[in-house]
Amino acid sequence: MRAASISRRTAETDVNVSIDLDGTGKADIATGVGFLDHMLELFARHALFDVTVKVEGDLHVDQHHTTEDAGIALGQAFAKALGDKRGIARYADIHLPMDEALTRVAVDVSGRPFLVFRTQFRVEKIGQFDTELVREWFQAFAGNAGLTLHVETLYGDNAHHIAESCFKGLARALRGAVAVDPREEGRVPSTKGSL
């Protein structure tokens, strides 16, 4: 069973997450940050991962620690759930349209974390959410999940649509990358024999 839970407590946040990579897209999200909840709900739905994220954070300061730590813990749970990566497709990419916005996401479940994030927002906030935190979440998630991740918004105007295309694109790419490839016959998809 490809599932895992992580608890992470610091002076800034108390985070509890779980993920099931072979789920149906159920989400139980409560971070205290409405926009982040929305992004994580659609992430779960489009990846077909069952995801629980509960965060108590220092929102009296701002939303940064809550957003980043949710990405860290979810990335750690993802890596733990995936285990030794035997039999997975490993690579996947997608062009994800969201109305006028189009984002390209490519992922390698490599164990070597690296993020290229070429997405810009014309505004500083989506409601009360700082748009710069979108990148912070992706950095935290990719780094802790062990992903080589490229995210590039090719065009778009509406900040909500741009962010949504990034999260949905990641979800769909990961859905493909962690799919079990029967032709791999349970092997690790690498000439090195490990990832």
Please describe what this structure looks like.
- The protein is of the alpha+beta class and 195 residues long.
- 34% of the residues lie in helices and 31% in strands.
- It has 4 helices and 10 strands; from the N terminus they run E-E-E-H-E-H-E-E-E-E-E-H-E-H.
- The chain has helices at residues 34-47, 64-82, 132-145, 159-177, and strands at 3-9, 13-20, 27-30, 50-57, 91-98, 101-108, 114-118, 125-126, 129-130, 148-155.
- The strands form 3 sheets. The chain has a 4-stranded mixed β-sheet, with helices on one face.
- Strand 8 (125-126) and strand 9 form a beta hairpin.
- Helix 1 (34-47) runs parallel beside helix 4 (159-177) and helix 2 (64-82) packs parallel to helix 3 (132-145).
- The protein is globular and about 50 Å long.
Give a quick set of tags describing it.
single chain; 195 residues; alpha+beta; four-stranded mixed β-sheet
Task: Give a topology summary.
Blueprint lengths: L2 E7 L3 E8 L6 E4 L3 H14 L2 E8 L6 H19 L8 E8 L2 E8 L5 E5 L6 E2 L2 E2 L1 H14 L2 E8 L3 H19 L18
Helix pairs in contact: 1-4, 2-3
